[in-house]
């Protein structure tokens, strides 16, 4: 789902809100998460997950095109850890899809 699809679905689910208001709400949420992460803060959305910043140490890597070794500097990267409820919902859906799909072995 893209950001514009998210905005469209939220606007459709909340007809009492103007489309531009829904867009502003979504953008504000994303901006606040980005601002908190840039400060090094953790953002936790109960039942959904947590956004944190992780530190990656400097290392020696390889240029995939040439194979030459290159030094990669230390950096911080955003990281998302799914919450328990989200993991369970995703796993339930995946298991339902596996059960609903016909087995390849059964066809042979």
Automatic annotation (TrEMBL):
The keyword Iron does not apply. InterPro entries: Hist_DNA-bd, Histone-like_DNA-bd_CS, IHF-like_DNA-bd_dom_sf, IHF_beta. GO terms for cellular component: chromosome; cytosol. Keywords: DNA recombination, DNA-binding, Transcription, Transcription regulation, Translation regulation. GO terms for molecular function: DNA binding; structural constituent of chromatin. GO terms for biological process: DNA recombination; regulation of DNA-templated transcription; regulation of translation. Heterodimer of an alpha and a beta chain. Belongs to the bacterial histone-like protein family. This protein is one of the two subunits of integration host factor, a specific DNA-binding protein that functions in genetic recombination as well as in transcriptional and translational control. NCBIfam families: hip (TIGR00988), PRK00199.1 (NF001222). This is Integration host factor subunit beta. It comes from Neoasaia chiangmaiensis.
